[in-house]
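// run 5 | inverse folding | seed 20
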């Protein structure tokens, strides 16, 4: 429906226009109400009418927008009414659709509409339990959408704020008006940067709304506080008044509510996270009570907000670790990694690793206690509960993640590697499920991929099946050839230590024990793991250590023992399997060597020669028999053809020119095959795209064209056949100017996706491999058609098919086509073509390729940075070949416009003398050296650690964990740097590869400064900035020492011994890991291996004399030692209970004692009954603001489960008015000079002689009694028994909150343990109103 703008007429027609608008508005409102009623009906039918519901929601949206437009018209008429203002106002007041507009720019319910879709249905589900539900639903929806749909108010900010404040503070205002006012305030806070929101009266009014009975009003009040904090001008003022105005209590109450109040609890959590995100000390506003409320949610397994609560605690551990530990956050984190949810384990383990890394934070973990809970699932594997297996899998996941971090690995090796020994011993348990899970864990830790279809692989009864070709992880394959050396990565270095640790813990003997088990699948899986680990040890461990591992004395003893025939047979099968692995891997490596040494064309020629020889050996009778058996000569129906025989003929006998001539000229064999593949025959081109059809017809077609193009007779036959002509006609159909309506197009998008039509591009790829094929395509003008097709903007599928299927070995049209598509296509086509060119170079082993390098240089000038970034990455990989690098330097591309993106490529230039000369002439080297010395070294550490973490966390199958970074920034380094564990290029490392660079480094004197820094701060363990700089210096020194020219710098300064000292004695675990990796860089040369050997570190050297760049300490134990630490957890502040002096003190103390007892699981049941009885006898106690304040202090200082916290707060029914907040101010801000002593309190109580005092939170006189401050304190006379976890009482590190029961009138107390965290409070005592046992009264 179109709505005419009738508000712009002359003054005489204003009233008439208003009547017309109001009539249309009435109609739209009725239509909207009808649609809403129909939606309610359809939504109760279990989504059986989804299509109809969707139509109704669209109509509802239309009517709602019409109402908005009509409302704006009416407002415009009112503002332009002129002399008719009085009559217009009267009409608006009389109509039921309009009230007078609210002062902040939002009209009443007619001006807002109920949003369609899920938001509206969600609001319905959270409707109130009484009243007109439909109207309440409209009100709730209106409050959420009003600020987005209403007309923007043009008045000044002060006027709008004044009107908002008037509505929020005036008594009798409807809740909907306040909700709209808060929504408008939120909109102002989001869009205002000039100030004006710093008002105490405004915060007071928001606080009053936060305790209202209307749920939606409370939600918007919390949102308003959060948006005021997010506003730059009102942030400081709001934070400064957050605690004085008791907003922390509002947050605690909101977050503790029933799950039905989801929106309110969600807004409270958002407010907490906003406080944490505030960079100027926002965590100081998060009180212990708020943190304990978040902890309670994180403990509740079925709470919908548990995940976000766990994330909040994890962030709190980073922001304020002492407070996090005080409230028991660490206990909750450790429990959550075992109980789940599984998707949160990675994040929570990262927090544990963060705490373990630094000695200043490690002291918050009880050594040998806190984290041993993770290993309990292994040692307690005999008990089978309903969740035992899930907990075991979670424990395995945690252990795997710890092993994939340097800090976690060292921590697990502490205490003489007890954790490692526990895992190894758990393999011997007679619980098969535990053994399977642990074996899978070891496969992942050692990055050994399981074979495809591993179930049948390990359960096959034929030994040859499970002893066949193993899975090979290409990322861990280190070449042992003489000519092709693959640079090892940091993954190999990390894995070498893990393997050494496990072998030292006896993993091989444990696997031998598993092999003796009767379960065939487990035995063979252990056998396969052992074989792979033995292979791994020969590649990444020194010869001496690998030899000890390879000996396997126990296995040979079992194989030679005749006491048990089955065990002897299993041991013999294991040795056979290991021998098969060695032979198979040697054969695979030899194949890889041949592929690298020989070009693909040469390999194909050799294969062709072999098949030709085999074909020549076939006599005429055998050949003709095969032709007949193929059934091609007997029938034209391709379904009856024997494609196995056809393929055998194409790959063998027909490679002989004489046999091919006989098949082409002497019979119809080739003719019928080509007729089958002709596009317009609709035989091959109409077949469905499936794996079976692809293997049968597609491969046979490629073999057919390959055979014909390899022979001059075949080329002539193709030139005479119709297939190329029809293929050209099919491509010409794509041109709109030449399209023919007589037949259906062959290369439509649907046919490309669903049929074998896409295989014609593979056939073109076969043609492009032969010079004769290129000539044929040019002869039939197919290339001209392909050039035209490359410009199609809507057929990127065809362009990508061209790019991926053409062969670019020969110089000709395919290279020109690729160049055209890399420069003139859409951005995603250019990016795809650049990526494919990189894949071509990688497949060729990055051999010298002049044309590809020149094409990639062209891509460096692409207008989109993503394409440039990809070109830089491909060139960086290609420049591993020195010839490619020399060509690139010779062409001298301009890279200034790329900024940081070009740094990896420019660093490659420094590794050659010509590149150094070129860059030095541009003053690049000196400028870059200054930048690296000042700040780029530190940036390098961050980039490397992120890349290494992603590489280590990735699984051997290539899957990445949640730590994989989602790159959104075009300039992010991660888009260039692969996460394969390789060491990125370092400026100083590349600089020292040339004599000129070494001379420049010596003149600058940077290395001497690096060496001095390492000597001065090698044992630093507290200053994070120094540690970060030390890591940067270590990586710089390591990259310098990784080159032959750079190693003399280390020898001159004698700095290697200091790096070894850091690796062996540093208290910062990540710093030990950095030093370990740096030592691996140093041993990348033979001289470096010899140098490290002097300090007790063994390098890995292959039998051919090549160094692997890996090293391990000869003696593991000193290296793995972590200095012992003493737990330094700070007890939480003791709760302060502040009570007024009254004769009801005894009853109040009974209530507080019952609340305190509820923190003890043993006493909780009896305490809840006592609390219920106390409320039934004296309900006024639970309407007392002082008692509510005491309850907040207790739940903020003690540990309570979420249901208990909710039960306690729900017991109170206090009217949180201004008077109540004034009393809270007096309680919180009470001065010690105004407090009275205990004797004065007793005298006052005796003199009064009445029970009148402070009741229901209201004073009874103009000068009420001042509160006295009562503090819980720990007594040395407590009798605390040892708990089941081994924690002693008194001053022990693991005291738990306890509730002491009153045993006599003299204050003798006795307490029991429970399973709660922390030592912040040990007792809550009954208070005698006369003697005040167990309490200290604050002075």
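// decoded
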């Amino acid at each position: 429906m179109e709505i005419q703008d009738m508000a712009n007429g002359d003054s005489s027609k204003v009233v008439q226009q208003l009547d017309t608008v109001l009539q249309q508005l009435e109609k739209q409102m009725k239509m909207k109400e009808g649609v809403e009623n129909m939606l309610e009906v359809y939504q109760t039918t279990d989504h059986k009418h989804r299509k109809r519901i969707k139509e109704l929601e669209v109509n509802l949206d239309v009517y709602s927008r019409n109402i908005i437009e009509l409302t704006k018209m009416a407002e415009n008429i009112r503002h332009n009414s002129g002399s008719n203002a009085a009559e217009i106002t009267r009409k608006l007041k009389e109509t039921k659709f309009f009230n007078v507009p609210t002062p902040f720019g939002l009209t009443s319910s007619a001006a807002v509409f109920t949003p369609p879709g899920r938001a509206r249905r969600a609001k319905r589900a959270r409707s109130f339990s009484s009243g007109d539900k439909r109207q309440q639903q409209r009100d709730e929806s209106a409050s959420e959408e009003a600020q987005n749909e209403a007309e923007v108010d043009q008045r000044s900010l002060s006027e709008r704020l004044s009107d908002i404040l008037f509505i929020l503070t005036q008594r009798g205002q409807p809740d909907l008006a306040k909700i709209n006012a808060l929504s408008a305030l939120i909109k102002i806070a989001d869009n205002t940067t000039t100030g004006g929101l710093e008002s105490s009266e405004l915060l007071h009014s928001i606080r009053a709304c936060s305790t209202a009975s209307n749920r939606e009003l409370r939600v918007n009040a919390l949102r308003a506080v959060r948006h005021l904090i997010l506003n730059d001008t009102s942030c400081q003022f709001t934070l400064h008044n957050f605690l004085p105005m008791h907003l922390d209590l509002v947050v605690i109450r909101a977050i503790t509510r029933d799950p039905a109040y989801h929106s309110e609890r969600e807004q409270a959590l958002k407010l907490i996270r906003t406080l944490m995100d505030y960079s100027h000390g926002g965590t100081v506003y998060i009180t212990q009570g708020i943190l304990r409320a978040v902890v309670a949610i994180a403990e509740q397994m079925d709470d919908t907000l548990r995940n976000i609560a766990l994330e909040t605690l994890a962030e709190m551990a980073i922001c304020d670790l002492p407070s996090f530990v005080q409230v028991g956050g660490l206990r909750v984190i450790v429990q959550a990694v075992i109980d789940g949810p599984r998707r949160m384990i990675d994040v929570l383990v990262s927090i544990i690793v963060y705490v373990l890394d630094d000695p200043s934070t490690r002291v918050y973990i009880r050594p040998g206690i806190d984290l041993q809970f993770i290993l309990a699932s292994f040692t307690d594997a005999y008990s089978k509960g309903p969740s035992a297996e899930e907990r075991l899998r979670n424990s395995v996941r945690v252990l795997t993640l710890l092993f994939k971090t340097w800090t976690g690995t060292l921590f697990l090796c502490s205490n003489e590697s007890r954790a490692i020994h526990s895992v190894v011993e758990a393999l011997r348990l007679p619980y098969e499920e535990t053994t399977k899970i642990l074996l899978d864990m070891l496969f992942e830790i050692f990055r050994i991929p399981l074979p495809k279809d591993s179930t049948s692989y390990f359960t096959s009864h034929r030994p040859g099946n499970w002893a066949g070709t193993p899975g090979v992880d290409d990322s861990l394959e280190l070449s042992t050839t003489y000519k092709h050396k693959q640079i090892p990565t940091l993954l190999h270095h990390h894995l070498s230590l893990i393997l050494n640790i496990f072998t030292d813990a006896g993993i091989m003997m444990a696997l031998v024990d598993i092999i003796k088990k009767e379960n065939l699948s487990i035995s063979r899986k252990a056998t396969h793991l052992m074989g792979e680990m033995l292979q791994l040890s020969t590649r990444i461990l020194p010869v001496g250590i690998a030899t000890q591992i390879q000996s396997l004395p126990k296995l040979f003893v079992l194989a030679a023992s005749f006491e048990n025939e089955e065990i002897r047979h299993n041991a013999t099968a294991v040795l056979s399997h290991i021998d098969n692995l060695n032979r198979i891997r040697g054969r695979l490596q030899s194949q890889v060597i041949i592929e690298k040494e020989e070009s693909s064309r040469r390999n194909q020629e050799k294969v062709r020669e072999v098949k030709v020889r085999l074909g020549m050996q076939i006599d005429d009778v055998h050949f003709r028999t095969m032709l007949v058996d193929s059934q091609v000569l007997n029938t034209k129906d391709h379904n009856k053809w024997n494609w196995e025989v056809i393929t055998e003929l194409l790959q063998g006998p027909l490679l002989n020119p004489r046999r091919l001539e006989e098949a082409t000229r002497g019979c119809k064999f080739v003719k019928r095959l080509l007729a089958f593949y002709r596009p317009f025959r609709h035989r091959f081109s109409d077949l469905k795209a499936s794996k079976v059809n692809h293997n049968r017809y597609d491969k046979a077609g490629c073999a057919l064209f390959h055979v014909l193009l390899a022979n001059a007779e075949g080329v002539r036959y193709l030139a005479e056949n119709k297939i190329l002509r029809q293929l050209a006609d099919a491509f010409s159909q794509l041109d709109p100017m030449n399209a023919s309506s007589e037949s259906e197009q062959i290369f439509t998008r649907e046919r490309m996706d669903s049929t074998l039509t896409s295989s014609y591009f593979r056939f073109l790829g076969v043609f492009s491999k032969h010079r004769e094929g290129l000539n044929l395509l040019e002869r039939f003008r197919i290339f001209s058609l392909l050039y035209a097709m490359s410009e199609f903007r809507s057929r990127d599928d065809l362009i990508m098919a061209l790019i991926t299927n053409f062969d670019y070995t020969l110089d000709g049209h395919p290279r020109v086509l690729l160049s055209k598509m890399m420069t003139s296509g859409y951005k995603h086509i250019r990016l795809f073509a650049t990526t494919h060119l990189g894949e071509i170079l990688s497949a060729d082993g990055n051999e010298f390729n002049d044309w590809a390098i020149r094409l990639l240089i062209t891509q460096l000038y692409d207008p989109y940075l993503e394409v440039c970034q990809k070109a830089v990455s491909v060139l960086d990989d290609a420049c591993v070949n020195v010839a490619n690098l020399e060509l690139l330097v010779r062409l001298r591309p301009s890279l200034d416009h790329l900024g940081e993106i070009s740094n990896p490529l420019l660093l490659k230039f420094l590794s050659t003398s010509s590149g150094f000369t070129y860059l030095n002439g541009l003053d690049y080297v000196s400028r870059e050296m200054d930048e690296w010395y000042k700040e780029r070294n530190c940036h390098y550490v961050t980039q490397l650690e992120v890349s290494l973490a992603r590489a280590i966390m990735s699984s051997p199958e290539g899957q990445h964990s949640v730590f994989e970074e989602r790159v959104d920034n075009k300039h992010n380094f991660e888009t260039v740097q692969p996460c394969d564990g390789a060491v990125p290029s370092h400026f100083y490392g590349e600089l020292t590869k040339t004599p000129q660079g070494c001379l420049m480094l010596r003149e600058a004197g940077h290395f001497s400064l690096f060496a001095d820094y390492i000597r001065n701060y090698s044992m630093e363990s507290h200053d994070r900035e120094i540690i970060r700089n030390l890591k940067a210096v270590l990586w710089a020194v390591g990259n310098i020492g990784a080159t032959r020219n750079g190693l003399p710098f280390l020898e001159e300064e004698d700095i290697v011994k200091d790096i070894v000292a850091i690796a062996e004695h540093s208290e910062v675990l990540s710093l030990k890991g950095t030093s370990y990796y740096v030592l691996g860089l140093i041993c990348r040369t033979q001289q470096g291996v010899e140098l490290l050997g002097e300090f007790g570190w063994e390098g890995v050297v292959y039998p051919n004399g090549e160094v692997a760049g890996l090293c391990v300490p000869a003696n593991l134990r000193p290296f793995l030692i972590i200095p012992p630490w003493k737990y330094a957890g700070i007890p939480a502040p003791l709760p302060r209970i502040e009570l007024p002096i009254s004769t009801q003190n005894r009853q109040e103390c009974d209530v507080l004692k019952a609340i305190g007892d509820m923190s003890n699981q043993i006493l909780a049941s009896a305490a809840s009954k006592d609390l219920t009885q106390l409320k039934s006898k004296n309900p006024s106690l639970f309407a007392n603001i002082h008692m509510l304040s005491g309850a907040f202090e207790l739940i903020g200082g003690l540990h309570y489960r979420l249901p208990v916290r909710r039960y306690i707060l729900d017991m109170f029914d206090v009217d949180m008015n201004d008077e109540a907040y004034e009393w809270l101010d007096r309680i919180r801000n009470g001065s010690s000079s105004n407090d009275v002593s205990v004797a004065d309190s007793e005298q006052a109580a005796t003199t009064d002689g009445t029970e009148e005092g402070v009741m229901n939170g209201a004073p009874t006189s103009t000068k009420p009694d001042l509160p006295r401050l009562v503090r819980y304190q720990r007594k040395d006379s407590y009798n605390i028994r040892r708990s089941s976890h081994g924690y002693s009482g008194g001053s022990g590190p693991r005291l738990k909150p306890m509730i002491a029961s009153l045993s006599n009138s003299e204050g003798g107390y006795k307490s029991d343990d429970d399973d709660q965290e922390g030592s912040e409070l040990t007792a809550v005592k009954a208070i005698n109103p006369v003697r005040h046992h167990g309490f200290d009264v604050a002075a």
